Amino acid sequence: MAIGLEDKKAIVAEVNETATSAMSLVIADARGVSVGGMTALRKEARESQVTVRVVRNTLAKRALEGTDYECVNDALVGPSLFGFSMEDPGAAARLFKDFAKDNDAFEVKALAVSGQMLGADQLDVLAKLPTRDQALSMLMSVMKAPVTKLAQTMNEVPGKLVRTLAAVRDQKEQEAA
């Protein structure tokens, strides 16, 4: 069924708005994936704050103009499934990587982050990025380590004095006995 000009403009505007606010983009070829499989992928995507869209390549090229993801135009060959990560840069990569494990027909074609296109072989690098919460907890542990070490060192001085006084007391008690 043909899409009217107004519908095409709406699709381009919607995809452009999504691409402008997205943190990363993963493009895959989903030919051969069952309807049930695609439904499951879309459900997981909603839970992971990933926007999944199937868009014609000509419309996608227009929608991605002026965004960080204009660099993926060369990868737009054949059917394309777009996964935009909205909250976490690695969310779409993790989602597509996990889905590809269970579906042999699902193939990642390209990915892009911050205006740089990466090949499908870089999917693991993007998928292994920590989430925001994980990154904050790692940062907090690094910031907490020097303070903890300082507190332990400062606590060691009076502790050593107390152990020395206890040893002197024990020695005097033994001499008195």
From TrEMBL:
Lineage, top-rank taxon, reads: Bacteria
In terms of Gene3D superfamilies, this protein maps to: 3.30.70.1730, 6.10.250.2350
Give the matching Pfam families: Ribosomal_L10
Q: Does the keyword Ribonucleoprotein apply?
A: yes
Q: Any idea which UniProt keywords this protein has?
A: Ribonucleoprotein, Ribosomal protein, RNA-binding, rRNA-binding
Q: Which InterPro entries would you find in this protein's record?
A: Ribosomal_uL10, Ribosomal_uL10-like_sf, Ribosomal_uL10_bac, Ribosomal_uL10_bac_type
A GO cellular component annotation here is: ribosome
Q: Name one GO biological process term.
A: translation
Q: Which GO terms describe its molecular function?
A: large ribosomal subunit rRNA binding
Coiled-coil ranges from the UniProt annotation: none
The UniProt entry, under NCBIfam families, shows:
PRK00099.1-1 (NF000955)
Q: What family name appears in the similarity comment?
A: Belongs to the universal ribosomal protein uL10 family.
What HAMAP family does the entry give? Ribosomal_uL10
Query: What protein is this chain from?
Result: Large ribosomal subunit protein uL10
What organism does this protein naturally occur in?
Congregibacter litoralis KT71
Please state the gene responsible for encoding this protein: rplJ
